[in-house]
Amino acid sequence: MGTKLYVGNLSYSVEETKLQELFSRHGSVASVKVITDKFSGRSKGFGFVEMGSSEEAERATAALNGTEFEGRAIVVSEARPQPPRPSRGGGTGGRPPRHNRW
Predict the structure, then answer these.
(1) H-helix or E-strand spanning residue 48
(2) Is 26:56 a contact under the CB 8 Å cutoff?
(3) 29-36 and 43-51: which strand pairing?
(4) pLDDT digit string (tens) for 3-47?
(5) What does the alpha-carbon distance between residue 50 and residue 29 come to, in Å, rounded to a whole number?
(6) What is the separation, in whole angstroms, between the first and last Cα of the chain?
(7) Among 76, 100, 70, which Cα is nearest to 23's?
(8) Is 74 helix (H, G, I), strand (E, B) or coil?
(9) Per the structure, how many domains does the chain have?
(10) Distance, CA of 21 to chain centre
(11) Could you tell me the pTM of the whole model?
């Protein structure tokens, strides 16, 4: 298991400091990030916690997955890399490029 964990089903009001406090009970926390909507700034209900070692990550996952945190049963699992997004065709918005002809 790696050291980066996915934390899902978070309350929309959860703050990174509270999440760090929760996970630090199970080992050293290298970083915490609650993912927010780039327009509204509101939490999307999930985030990532990076633990100091893979052993600490395993301990935190075993202890916290399915437990209640701020009124919701959270999901804790190893973070997986985001799949690559398909190409959108070079910046023309899917339209064929226009050529200026004099």
Answers:
(1) strand 43-51
(2) yes
(3) antiparallel
(4) 999 999 999 999 999 999 999 999 999 999 999 999 999 999 999
(5) 6
(6) 61
(7) 76
(8) coil
(9) 1
(10) 17
(11) 0.80
